[in-house]
Structure formats: C-alpha cells, structure tokens
Design brief:
The chain has 110 residues and is mainly alpha-helical. It contains 5 helices and no strands. The chain has a domain at 44-96.
Length: 110
Amino acid sequence: MVKSIEESARERRCYIEQARASFQAPGQEYVTEQEEETVPAGNATLGIRLVIAILLFACFVYCDQEKVTFQGIGAQEVVKQIQWKPFPTEKVEELLGNISISSKQDDKKQ
C-alpha cells in the first residue's frame, strides 16, 4: 500500500508535534513555520545600506566641491580608479569574436 504525500506529511507533522510536546514547558507554545513572519533576506538591511550609500555619495560630492584630499588622493583620482579597466575586454572580444561555437554551422559545412 502506497501512502500519498498528504498522508506522509500529516504523519510527520503529528510526530513533530508529539516530540515538541514532550520537551515543552508548561505554558510555552512553539511557533510553527507557517506562523512565523519572516523578512526576505535581501530586504532586511536595505534601508541601512541605502542610507550609507547616500552618505558616501554626499561625502564624495562635498570633497569634490571643496577640493578635499585624503593622503594626496582627491575625487578626480577616485573617478579615474573607477573608470580604469584592468582587464582588456576589447582585445578578448576581438580574439573570441572569430571563434564560433555553434554546432549548426559545423553541420552545414559537412
């Protein structure tokens, strides 16, 4: 006799409730997974990260306007470092542009 998924789930739930009841102190209730209110993982610190980003940007703009430097590094140097591309993507695209991986082209050639 094969049990349905619903029957198996019901049996497991009953077993878990029995196990919890055996460890439960009087007057204490356990919260089941369905009753828990959870915050999506990415949204928990979104507000904090947004405030920090705005403050950093405001500091950057202030330092740029007032020509403030830190250890000889100004806002223009920061912009140059952001724009700098250490990996020559153009050369890689040129090299890989001539390579075809499609098997349809291989079939047409034969």
